[in-house]
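Case study 2.
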Amino acid sequence: MTRFPNLRLGVFTLAALIALMAWDATGADLLLARMAGSHLGFPLRDNPFMVHVMHEGARNLSWALVILLFAAIRWPFGLLRRLDTGARVQLALTVLGSVIAVSILKHASHTSCPWDLQEFGGVARYVSHWSWGIGDGGPGGCFPAGHASAAFAYVGGYFVLRRVSSRAAAIWLWTAVAAGLVLGVAQQLRGAHYMSHTLWTAWVCWTVGFAVEVAVSRFGSHSSRPAVPAHAGS
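Prediction:
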């Protein structure tokens, strides 16, 4: 395990990928979409709370936090003071890199949103996002869930924070996961995404963070640094 310190996390990442690949076969995406919408569309699509708080507000807050993380590279605060400069750079870049990765995938996607489907008042037909090269007749650009990345992008912070506090790292991770699921469900209720879009965003963001951590562990200055217990130095 010393030779392969990230083996367990690698196995977990692969297992999560297999589970996601199997999700599409369940038909749960359309089932959940039909619970939120009908042939008249999605009642919560233009709901003021959903639009201005859960969508616009959450997005703006996330970008403010990104700016704060980059500022903390020079002026660290709180737990971030226990991280060296390289670790703080990794944290900020991992978050930004996760957002960019999801955005690139979205722009390359031919998958349309649920509210674009014919059965919900749109023009598209449902096509699995695994049916590469087959258009659904809609505008596309809806896979994976970009908005959920406003929270899931932070999951990579787990890899950085575990060096100084396993407890803080766990809290950070599960807070990001919970927030991402809340944002994903909110967008699903609006008809903006399927559940699989949200789950794929979580996996992509986790994988970006994991890939950066593997690279840093192998080539950076933290490869031999053990995690510091939460009570250390207290």
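The helical segments are 7-23, 28-36, 48-74, 85-108, 149-152, 157-161, 166-190, 195-219.
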